Amino acid sequence: MAKGMIQQAAEQQAQQAAIRTRDVIRKLRVEVSQEDRDYHAKRLAEAAIAVNLLEAQRTDTTADFNRRIKKQKGVMEEAALIVQDGLRDREVRCVQEFDDVKGLTRVVRKDTLEAVEDWRAMAEDERQLAVPGTEDEELDEGNGGLDGADVD
Question: Domain limits at 68?
Answer without folding.
Answer: 34-88
